[in-house]
Automatic annotation (TrEMBL):
UniProt entry keywords in alphabetical sequence: c-di-GMP, Membrane, Transmembrane, Transmembrane helix
Domain EAL: from-to ranges: 23-276
Full-protein interval shown: 504 to 781 of 791
A GO term for molecular function: cyclic-guanylate-specific phosphodiesterase activity
The organism's place on the tree of life at top rank: Bacteria
A GO cellular component entry from the record: membrane
GO terms classed as biological process: signal transduction
Identification of the protein by name: cyclic-guanylate-specific phosphodiesterase
Keyword Protease: no
Amino acid sequence: TCKDKHVHYLCYQPSLNKHSLLRLSLMSELRAAILDNQLELFYQPKLDIEQQKIVSVECLVRWHHPEHGFIQPDEFIPLAEQSGHIRALTEWAIKTALAQHKSWLKQGIELQMAVNISAVDLIDLKLPALVAQLMSSHGLSPHSLKLEVTESAVMAEPDQALQALCMLNQMGIKLSIDDFGTGFSSMAQLKKMPLDELKIDKSFVLDLNNDEDDEVIVKSTVELAHNLGLSVVAEGVEDLLTLNKLKGFGCDIAQGYFIAKPMTAENFIAWWDPVRLQ
Ligand code: C2E
Ligand code: CA
Ligand code: CA
Ligand code: CA
C-alpha cells in the first residue's frame, strides 16, 4: 500500500503506461505546464577524460506536476512527441539552456550546452530557423550549443534528418548522435550525416567491468567513431574502473553517476567549483 508520498510516486509510475486516460490528461496538460514553469532543466556534466575537465553539460528536462509530483522524461517525452507538444518543449529547452549559458558566462563559466531533440523536430524542418533566431537573439556563438539526436530519430526519416542536420551544421551548431548502438542505423547513412560526436549508449557501458562482449563493442565503437572523425562520449559511467577502462580505449568524454548525477542549476554550480564562488 502507498503510505507516504515517496512510495505513492513509485506505485504511480508503472500505472502511467496502463491508464490511457491519465496519459491523455498528461498530454493535454503539457502545454500549460510549459507556460506555467512546471518544467525544469537539470544539468549533467560531461568530463573530458584526458584533460580531466568538465567541458559541457547535458540538459535534461524534469516535470514537477502539481498533483503527480516529479515525472521523468521517459514518461512524458513520448507523449509530447505523439501530441505535437514536443516542438514547444524543444523550443523551451533550447531557450532555457541558452539563458542558463549566458548567466554562467557572466560568472566566468563557459560550458557548452547539450540539448536533446526528438525525431519530430528533425522532420518538420523548422528547427534550423528557430535555432538561428535563438542564437542571434542571445548573441551567442554557435559552438555554445550542441544538439543530441538519437540514432533512431535520425533513421526515422533519414533524408529529412540529413537536410535539417546539414542546415544546423552550416550554422556551426555541434551535433551528437545519441544512444548509439541501439538504433540499427546503416553505416552508409550515418557516414553522410554531418556529426561531431557519438554517444555510446549506456546499456553497453553499465556492465563494462563484467561483460566481455560489451568491452568489444565499446572498444570497436570508439575506433569506428575516431575513424569517422567523431569524438566519443560514453554515458552511464558509474565507477572508477569503468572510467579507467574507457580511458584505455581512447574514449574522449565520460558522463555518468560516477562523475555526477543530473543536477539543478544551483546544485551544479555548487558541485562544479565550490571554492571559486566563495
Ligand atoms: P538520454 O538523452 O540518453 O539521457 C541519458 C539518461 O541517462 C538520463 O536520464 C540520465 O539521467 C541517465 N543517466 C546519466 N548517467 C547515468 C548513469 O551513470 N547511470 C544510469 N543508470 N543512468 C544515467 P533522464 O534524465 O531520465 O532522461 C531520459 C531520456 O529522456 C533522455 O535519454 C532523453 O532521451 C530524454 N530527454 C530528457 N530531456 C529531454 C529533452 O529536453 N528533450 C527531449 N526530446 N528528450 C529529452
Ligand atoms: Ca542525450
Ligand atoms: Ca543517451
Ligand atoms: Ca536514452
